[in-house]
Amino acid sequence: MSNNSMIAIAAVIFLVIFAPRFVKIVPPGHVSVSDLFGEINPEPVAAGFHVVNPVLRWHDFDVRENTHKESAQVPTRDQLQTKVDVSIQWRINPAMAAQIFGEVGTRDQAIAVYLVPKVRSLIREIGTSISRAEDFFEEETRNRLESTLKSGLVAYLSPLGIDIQAVLIRDINLPPVLTKAIEQKKEREQAVERQKAELERFRTEQLQQVAEADAKRQAAEQEAIQIRVLAEARADEIRLINDAIANNRAYIQLKSLETLEAMAKDPAAKIFWMDSNSVQPLPLMHLGERPN
Asked: Which of 139, 174, 238, 292 gives the lowest tally of CB atoms within 10 Å of its CB?
């Protein structure tokens, strides 16, 4: 075998073994930090294809947004412990990946060293400003907890290369003794509301009964007025008739004759006498008969 053949074979073997070290492909959503014999390059490499120094070592960092969930016992001024579950949306600052690698190592190590202890410390610190554990159920307290946590984390973690996107309260678990007291309080409030509803129903029924009684009273008053008007009209009619009789003797005589005519038609009619000199000549009936 000639020397040229040997050189060609050696070149192929070299390329097969060492060619991949001349190329660095950084996946999407990542940056890569390089170091040469322990000296870290402060400029990370962005996602994509790169031709690089084959003797460099590479360390990929995921810089996509991620969520860290944390639970902590929060003491309040009433000396009760409340469990608070929070979700923290965060990401590695790509420009500071080299700093993070040099100070703590990987991304997970950065979270364990920087984020977790600070979250727990801030939660406990905020708890000392809350008077009662049950205040955690108030919207104002929740909003204050979220905003204070976020501002504290941003101020502390941004210089360290971790960007905080949002802080959300997932759940709040009050102490069992307080939970039971709140449930009993709610039961009492519900009982009071039921009593109020019953009293309101009774009040409505009473108002309806009063309205019905008032309607009946008004109807009775209208009926009484109507009866009084009819009575007055009847009295006026009788008075007019009496006045007419008193001022007209012929009317009485006419009525007397009509009466005699009606009696004359009676088969059992008898003889009747009339006093023609009387002002009001009326028949004298059944004279001489003895009472039974």
From this structure: 292
